[in-house]
Write a structure and sequence with these properties.
The structure holds two protein chains of two kinds. The longest helix of chain A is centred in the N-terminal third of the chain and has 18 residues. In chain A, the strands form seven sheets. In chain A, strands 28, 29, 30, 31, 32, 33, 34, 35 and 36 form a nine-stranded mixed beta sheet that branches. In chain A, strands 14-13-10-11-12-15-16 form a seven-stranded antiparallel beta sheet, with helices on both faces. Chain A has a seven-stranded mixed beta sheet with strand order 17-18-21-20-19-22-23, with helices on both faces. Chain A is built from 37 helices and 41 strands. Chain A is an alpha/beta fold. Chain B is an alpha/beta fold. Chain B has two domains: 148 residues, 3-Layer(bba) Sandwich (Glucose Oxidase, domain 1); 195 residues, Rossmann fold, CATH 3.40.50. Chain B has ten helices and 19 strands. In chain B, α8 crosses α9. The chains are: A alpha/beta, B alpha/beta.
């Protein structure tokens, strides 16, 4: 059937900010969807609150609305644009939920919009637990038996009915707090009683335990004529019980016989046929490893993280095909873009192994509870392709940027078998290293498998790696002969890993490889295992005999990507990489990208002329460079991941386009950075490095409190704190020196000033600043976590000139070619420089969109020799945009138990949204709404607990809140203070004072928001920490910076309401 | 033990031998299924062929005694990128290595199977030798010349007529190397079956008074079976007939159609086929080197391959006769077309 020609204008809803569980994969699928629609001549109206995405580029959609993803704002867009259709399944769960809401509220009906693709009715059939269960029963597909109970006896009788063991999951508690597995009645009684108590709604889900079953996923496609295919199946190496987003996943399945494979495939197809999916769907199944028994876990009737992974794993563009199916095409009418001969109606077959490994944020959140469970905690993932399991696995491990090049970990190795055994029983992110160590200590393979629930097949693979590592440890370089080295390389060992185990320099292995002529070969990902000729320029390395890459003699440039999404290095960098590629293409340069993140647009093989899906380590990148011999390599857009390759590549005489390696180092190395500023006569906050506590105390006295402290070895806000007095400083120093006595701690005078940030393009002579961004919160809060305003609203011309002047000086001194990001503090009319990043930054996508300066394109052109003067955007500061944009950070702390919530010098946000409007207040209002804050217009109850140095600052705000009709609830100290300034408040007990206390009141749901300013960072035993966690876990808004709350109060004061606000199409010139 | 695959075009691949360590000659083909190696090994249609699997890890779930498509392995050689020495699955009873040894099949491991696949794709299927020693050019030539697969069906068909009881319709099966799952598919429908050797006389078959006749899959070139085609001519107007794979090709010859060899065959279980009656598309399991190039005049096309538009199914314009090139019985592969057996059983009378 051909396309439905009545579809002319389609509304696409994005997935909003990056949060844990909903990340860049929806930029990838959303972008593909928009492109697929445009290809068909359909007008695309896009709404997404996330400015860091490629999908919100004016080139991707015809109309681009960066507006809050709420029914109110979407209706405004609908009113203006009058789309005839809505494509619902591209914006993750967010997009799906909103589509359902639009339907339920009658808005789709009101504006005569039809839902294309999977219908709302079908979505609901798949999403609603109960109706899904009934449907499965009807078609004889087994589901896991479960029941929600609210009293003990009900639970016990249900457990007897389904048989022990049972899983107990209290409703609305984070990370399964209070849940557990009960093996018998006695255990159930104790777990259930506690669970019922802890659940806010007094409800507990009891579920038949399928612990230890295999978790298998199928990505299925269906057209409206009922044709179905499965794109890919995937096996979770981790058993059921660990969220698939937190599991290591391998594609295709490795341990299923054809019978099992086909049984689950048939089940998946039966389900999507019954639900009548039109497009893509993810089906998760659990399989008993001891029989053919299986159960459907759940389905996702939309594109998903798994579908992005499946697309990258197979080369089959699920989102693109799903979009075409939504337009009415049949699967047999859509060409396979890989072979250009076959059609979308086939099942890809792989001739390689794909592994996905999650990337967790625990390096940022030391105190988090790392235990893996049913709630996803990973912020991102890496994918690796190899011709065997071991190579894909080891490539994946080294792609994680954990500093791990082998499975050996010195800390883990010091643990006893008994300890390790306990650890893998309740696995966390390090379980692989734990179980590898068990194998290293000769613990039985079968037992490891039994304890971990990981199939013996995989344990044996890991065991082989471990045993080879041990052999290497006990031998010398001389004994590493050609056959052995070749075998190790085939199995994915890195030069660095081998070198470390042999205790030699990495270069020795590199040289040995050259001597033996052991070089990687590159094979194509072609969807068909070589059966048909394919044209996909999508490659991975192996150590097989034949290479498939044709190296051209065109002028070419390699762009290094940014790897997995993590806190501090997110989707923004992928945006930059992709735009750089686009710019290079315009210049008729062959483009090559190297990256390892399956969620991204950059790893869509349609983006660059060639895609190498490889780890971003020195060795892996160098191998590609040696093969392709590009004119140059671009590192500036790949965040720290790419930048840190600079020195290594420089030493090997590889041309790095843009700022030189030495100058990158001058900005990154702290001492050199200080010298630089001194030379340029630019001031920075006073500071000193100290090596012991006494020096620290005396230096701090000289500087004067508050003092910003951080260890010298980390960048990017890790381990940074602000200390307000000597006690706090001593506590910090004690901890820091205890952790590493040889690492200096840096003390800086903490200036409570205005933070200002710029991105600039520089050609070595001139600079172009697309815009000056002003932070709402005062210095001390990581720039990534601050609310940022553009154009600035409160910066004098004098300071602006100084900013330009300083930027020019620094850029010139560092001979910056391309991008530079500088952060300033304005304090008592002085401008200080606090940080210089000689690369593209997190703010580039946002500033590009709102300033209309194509920042990355210009930077790329400059790196290739063009001058700013000739680019047509002028010099110095670009003209301010007429609309005000406010970037608001979004956090995922509710997903991570025991993680600090308050804002501070360490970055914690996972994503961002943008509010755009004509005034600052309106834009901020939109930003806050888009970030999910529930802004209550009049009256309400606020819980306030302040630290002593913030109380004074709060009085004006408190008065305003009172005037607005808010009531205050406060702990004793704050209550007394409020009393002093004439504000009545209800006093509430501290945690130690018994019940009901401050935590109970938060959980009770009567509080509208919490204002809590922290005393000291990262101490989970303190009341403040527990208050903040309680608020986050009970979904009560919390503000930890007075600057934020002040701004909020000003908005409340202005009485902004949704109905007064307009929406703005950013694609309009 | 080091071994070499020598292809007819002179190309060689060095790897390690496993299984039964004895030189072997055969027609080298590739299969793209990611699971189902056991079914492939025991599918009689592979008789005379050296099969290379495109999926690199083979043997992961071992071998069990349940999923056999015939009593023994029928391939002349088995080529994998990597065999699994530590398989795991609750039904795993043997390892690939041991199974091949017991079945006297040589395995070759550790070669660049993707490169081999691409050679076969570009040059077409060709003969190959897996050898454990150095061979001179004349030895190689001699071996290639001596190899043919003309008696393939003779070697895999049943020697004796046998019956399987059932209380549904009675199906006479002409066994050209039948896959067990076809038998299981009829059994599941409670059919009574009488299984005949490939060269059975038409009157012997009709004597048993079957309700329908089934022509099985099997190895080799249908043109090597002229007597069978002649026999079929005497059966076609007597009973409803269903042919699968070789059976389909034989029916085409019987009605005056034309058979050609595919460049590199269809082997795998991801082949899309369109049912021309309903316009529905099914993913099918396929294993064939020959195809019906010219349709007999009395037949109409019912199915086509979406990959290369070749004929995948046909039916007689008047008689209750139809056939498919793909394998509705799957094993390995999707069972999306299992209903074909239902249709056939219903048609039998």
């Amino acid at each position: 059937m051909p396309k439905d020609n009545s579809i002319k204008k389609v509304l696409v809803i994005g997935s909003g900010p990056i949060v844990i569980g909903q990340a860049a994969e929806f930029d990838y699928s959303g972008t593909q969807a928009c492109q697929a629609l445009k290809e068909e001549g359909i007008e695309v109206v896009l709404i997404n609150s996330n400015p860091a995405t490629i999908m919100t580029d004016r080139e991707i959609a015809d109309k681009v609305y960066i507006e809050p993803l709420t029914v109110e704002f979407i209706e405004k867009v609908i009113k203006i644009e009058k789309p005839d259709s809505l494509l619902a399944g591209m914006g993750g769960q967010t997009g799906l939920n909103i589509a359902v809401e639009l339907e339920n509220k009658g808005i789709l009906n009101k504006y005569d919009i039809k839902v294309i693709g999977t219908s709302i009715e079908s979505i609901q059939k798949g999403e609603d637990r109960e109706s899904f269960r009934k449907l499965m029963e009807k078609i004889n597909q087994p589901v896991i038996e479960s029941k929600i109970v609210s009293e003990l006896n009900e639970g016990i009788s249900f457990a007897e009915e389904i048989g022990y063991p049972v899983v107990v999951r209290p409703a609305y508690t984070l990370g399964g707090t209070g849940g557990g597995i009960a093996d018998d009645k006695q255990e159930l009684v104790s777990i259930l009683a506690q669970g019922l108590h802890l659940s806010r709604v007094g409800q507990v889900l009891i579920e038949k335990s399928i612990k230890g079953w295999k978790e298998i996923e199928y990505e299925v496609m269906r057209d409206e004529y009922g044709n179905c295919i499965t794109v890919c199946n995937m096996e979770n190496i981790d058993p059921v019980g660990i969220h698939t987003g937190d599991s290591i996943v391998v594609a295709p399945s490795q341990t299923l016989s054809d019978k099992e494979y086909q049984m689950l495939r048939s089940a998946s197809i039966d389900i999507i046929n019954t639900i009548e999916i039109i497009g893509g769907c993810n089906v998760q199944l659990a399989l008993n490893p001891e029989s053919f028994e299986y159960a459907i876990i759940e389905i996702n009737p939309r594109v998903s993280r798994s579908s992005a992974l499946a697309s990258k794993a197979t080369g089959y563009p699920i989102a693109k095909v799903a979009t075409k199916l939504a337009l009415g095409y049949g699967l047999d009418e859509i060409k396979n873009r890989v072979t250009k001969k076959t059609f979308a109606c086939f099942e890809p077959t792989l001739d390689y192994v794909v592994i996905k490994i999650p990337k967790w944020p625990f390096d940022k959140f030391n105190d988090a509870n790392r235990a893996l469970g049913t709630k996803m905690m990973a912020t991102g993932e890496v994918m690796a392709i190899g011709s065997n399991f071991e190579s894909a696995f080891l490539k994946g491990i080294r792609s994680l940027e954990l500093g791990k090049n082998t499975l050996f970990d010195i800390d883990v190795s010091s643990k006893s078998l008994k300890e390790l055994k306990e650890r893998v029983k309740s696995p966390d992110d390090e379980r692989i290293f734990d179980l590898a160590e068990m194998l290293r200590k000769d613990y039985r393979v079968e037992k490891v498998s039994e304890i971990t629930g990981i199939d013996e097949f995989f344990i044996n693979k890991i065991n082989w790696i471990v045993k080879e590592e041990e052999k290497l440890k006990e031998t010398t370089l001389e004994k590493l002969d050609k056959d052995w080295l070749y075998k190790l390389k085939k199995r994915g060992f890195s030069d660095l890993g081998i070198a470390k185990l042999l205790d030699v320099d990495e270069n020795e292995i590199y040289n040995l490889r050259k001597e033996f002529n052991i070089l990687p070969k590159y094979k194509m990902v072609d969807t068909c295992a070589g059966e048909f000729e394919a044209l996909t320029p999508y490659y991975y390395s192996t150590y097989e005999k034949y290479d498939e890459v044709e190296v051209s003699d065109k002028k070419k440039v390699i762009v290094i990507g940014s790897g997995p999404i993590r806190i501090g290095q997110g989707i923004e960098f992928d945006y930059c990489s992709v735009h750089s590629i686009e710019a290079l293409k315009k210049l008729d340069i062959e483009t090559i990208i190297v990256n390892n993140n399956p969620e991204t647009v950059s790893t869509d093989f349609d983006i660059s002329d060639k895609l190498y899906f490889e780890p971003l380590t020195e060795e892996d990148v160098l191998s590609i460079i040696e093969k392709e011999k590009p004119q140059g390599v671009i590192l500036q857009f790949g965040g720290q991941t790419a930048i840190k390759l600079a020195k290594y590549l420089k030493e090997r005489n590889i041309t790095i386009l843009g700022t030189s390696c030495e100058n990158i180092d001058r900005a990154e190395d702290r001492e050199k950075f200080e010298e630089l500023l001194e030379k340029l006569n630019i001031i920075r906050p006073k500071g000193k490095a100290v090596l012991n506590i006494n020096d620290g105390i005396s230096e701090a006295r000289k500087l004067g409190y508050p003092v910003l402290v951080r260890p010298s070895y980390v960048l990017g806000g890790q381990g940074m704190e602000i200390t307000y007095n000597e006690d706090e400083l001593i506590r910090y120093l004690n901890k820091a020196f205890k952790y590493d006595a040889n690492n200096t701690v840096l003390l800086d005078k903490y200036l409570i000033g205005k933070e200002i940030e710029i991105d600039a393009i520089c050609d070595g002579e001139d600079i172009l600043i697309p815009g000056i961004m002003e932070h709402l919160e005062r210095a001390g809060i990581h720039s990534g976590d601050s609310i940022t305003i553009y154009p600035s609203i409160d910066i004098s011309e004098k300071i602006k000139n100084k900013i330009v002047n300083y930027t020019k000086k620094i850029a010139k001194e560092l001979n910056v070619l391309g991008m530079i990001n500088i952060q300033f503090i304005q304090y008592e009319n002085q401008l200080y420089v606090i940080e210089v990043n000689p690369r593209s930054s997190r703010t580039v996508p946002y500033i590009s969109k709102v300033s209309t300066v194509p920042v990355i394109e210009l930077a790329t052109r400059v790196m290739l020799g063009e001058k700013i003067e000739s680019l047509g955007y002028g010099k110095g500061i670009y003209k301010d945009s007429e609309l005000v944009s406010v970037k608001v950070p979004v956090f995922s702390t509710e997903k991570l138990s025991e993680v600090e919530v308050s804002l501070g010098p360490e970055m914690r946000s996972t994503g961002e949204v943008l509010g755009i409007d004509e005034t600052f207040e309106r834009a901020l209002y939109k930003g806050l709404v888009a970030s999910g804050k529930k802004i209550k217009k009049e009256s309400g109850k606020i819980l306030v607990t302040l630290n002593s140095h913030d109380k004074q600052d709060f009085s004006e705000t408190a008065m305003k809140l009172k005037k607005l009709g808010y009531e205050f609830i406060a702990t004793e100290g704050t209550s007394k203070y409020l009393d002093d300034i004439g504000i009545e408040s209800t006093s509430i007990k501290k945690i130690s004072e018994g019940v009901p206390n401050v935590l109970d009141i938060i959980r009770s749901g009567v509080i509208d928001f919490v204002i809590n300013t922290p005393t000291k960072g990262n101490d989970s035993k303190r009341d403040g920490f527990r208050i903040r966690r309680a608020a986050i876990e009970a979904s009560v808004d919390i503000f930890t910076s007075l600057d934020t709350i002040n701004a909020l109060v000003n908005i409340l004061d202005k009485k902004i309401v949704d109905s007064d606000l307009n929406v703005y199409d950013l694609a309009k010139e | 033990m080091e071994a070499t695959l020598i292809l007819e075009n002179g190309k060689t691949f060095k790897g390690n031998a496993f299984g039964y360590l004895k030189e072997s000659v055969g027609e080298v083909v590739f299969n793209t299924g990611m699971t189902g190696y056991q079914e492939v090994l025991t599918d009689p249609s592979y008789y005379g062929q050296i099969v290379t699997m495109t999926y690199p890890l083979v043997g992961n779930y071992g071998i069990n005694l349940e999923d056999m498509e015939s009593e023994s392995s029928k391939v002349k050689g088995f080529i994998v990128r990597e065999k699994s020495d530590k398989p795991n699955n609750f039904r795993c009873e043997m390892k690939l290595n041991g199974y091949l040894r017991q079945n006297k099949v040589i395995g070759l491991e550790g070669i660049d199977t993707r490169a081999l696949t691409k050679i076969l794709r570009n040059h077409g299927t060709m003969k190959g030798i897996i050898t454990l020693r150095e061979l001179s050019e004349s030895q190689i030539k001699h071996k290639f010349d001596a190899f043919h697969n003309k008696n393939a069906v003779d070697n895999v068909t049943t020697k004796e007529v046998y019956e399987i009881e059932g209380n549904n319709k009675h199906i006479a099966i002409l066994d050209f190397g039948i896959k067990k799952n076809i038998i299981r598919s009829f059994k599941k429908r409670n059919c009574k079956m009488t299984i005949f050797p490939a060269d059975s006389k038409p009157e012997d078959i009709l004597d048993k008074k079957p309700d329908a006749i089934f022509l099985s899959n099997g190895p080799g070139d249908p043109e090597d079976l002229p007597e069978v085609v002649e026999n079929l001519k005497q059966l076609v107007d007597k009973k409803p007939i269903l042919g699968i794979c070789l059976g389909h090709q034989l029916l085409a010859l019987c009605f005056g159609g034309n058979i050609k060899k595919l460049k590199y065959g269809h082997r795998g279980w991801n082949h899309p086929v369109k049912d021309l009656d309903t316009n529905k598309i099914y993913i099918t399991s396929q294993n064939h080197g020959y195809y019906v190039d010219k349709l007999p005049e009395e037949m109409v096309k019912t199915h086509i391959s979406l990959n290369d538009n070749t004929i995948e199914g046909m039916k007689h314009k008047k008689l209750p006769i139809y056939s498919v090139q793909f394998h509705p019985e799957a094993c390995p592969g999707p069972k999306d077309m299992d209903y074909i057996f239902d249709q056939f059983v219903k048609m039998a009378r």
